[in-house]
Write a structure and sequence with these properties.
Layout: E1 5-9, H1 16-29, E2 37-41, H2 47-54, E3 59-63, H3 80-85, E4 90-93, H4 96-101, H5 106-118, E5 122-127, H6 131-135, H7 139-154, E6 163-166, H8 180-195, H9 199-204, E7 206-210, H10 215-222, E8 229-232, H11 239-246
Parallel strand pairs: 1-2, 1-8, 2-3, 3-4, 4-5, 5-6, 6-7, 7-8
Helix pairs in contact: 1-11, 5-7, 7-8, 10-11
Bound molecules: 2-phosphoglycolic acid.
Length: 252
């Protein structure tokens, strides 16, 4: 069976001191997380320090973004090779904040996905619809378009070394969680779309849910058959809350 993954996306939050305290809290309780794999995604500048602290622990490290380029004159960019060298296992690609606040489109996101894999990182590809898209009844079309951009550039085999996160944009940071049934419907749609190309890859693919996951709703979400863990924003900044999500039935 698929091993759940619970990944904390810290976004642009934290200081050295607050991150040390957060890691102390997570490490103090990680022994009680029996089955889920756990990862944290700090802001770039803190990645080396966090990776050093977490080396030899069960908690993996991811970055929140990666350049589509490998090296060279790309001011402000950070390459997959750099992230790999400083200890990242995962990298979030195509988060809705990148897509919607910084105008990153499907093709650009697919190139970032490819760049991550070129350097041995496991991309966590985020997909999800805006509120108006859900209201127009085009959720599946939007998610299919975002997924297909990666399938076309990288092929379905690439999903054997990747994770998908379904994050309805209207549920991110809003306190409005998708119901377990709403989330399950989209997760099943994603898995079926991959299955139409390769059943084995579809069965092994971890599809996380993200969007206002908390300890109070994690078990209901993670209990759905096609939900294999979560990408956690706000609640990952609180060690106790994050650990409670990692321990939720269905994730462990
Ligand atoms: P949230 O963020 O848990 O704060 O809604 C999730 C995400 O953006 O990955």
């Amino acid at each position: 069976m698929r091993q759940s993954l619970v990944a904390g996306n810290w976004k642009m939050n934290g200081t050295r001191a607050s991150i040390r305290a957060l890691l102390d809290g997570v490490l103090a309780g990680i022994g009680d997380v029996k089955h889920a794999e756990v990862a944290v995604c700090p802001p770039y500048v803190y990645v080396p320090e966090v990776a050093e602290r977490l080396a030899g622990t069960p908690v993996a490290v991811g970055a929140q973004d990666v350049s589509d380029q490998d090296q060279g004159a790309y001011t402000g960019e950070v390459s997959g090779a750099m992230l790999k060298e400083v200890g990242c296992t995962y990298v979030i690609v195509g988060h809705s904040e990148r897509r919607n606040l910084y105008g990153e489109d499907d093709a650009f996101t697919a190139r970032k996905f490819a760049a991550a894999q070129r350097h041995g990182l496991v991309p966590i590809l985020c997909v999800g619809e805006l509120l108006e898209e859900r209201e127009q009844g085009i959720t599946q079309q939007v998610v299919a378009r975002q997924l297909d951009a990666v399938l076309e550039l990288c092929g379905v085999e690439a999903l054997a070394r990747a994770v998908i996160a379904y994050e309805p944009v209207w549920a991110i940071g809003t306190g409005k969680t998708a119901t377990p049934e709403q989330a399950q419907e989209v997760h099943a749609f994603i898995r079926d779309r991959v299955r139409s190309r390769d059943a084995g890859i579809a069965d092994g693919l971890r599809i996380l849910y993200g969007g206002s996951v908390k300890a109070a709703n994690a078990a209901d979400l993670f209990g759905q058959p096609d939900i294999d863990g979560g990408l956690i924003g706000g609640a990952s900044l609180d060690a106790e809350e994050f650990l409670a999500i990692c321990r939720a039935p269905g994730a462990s």
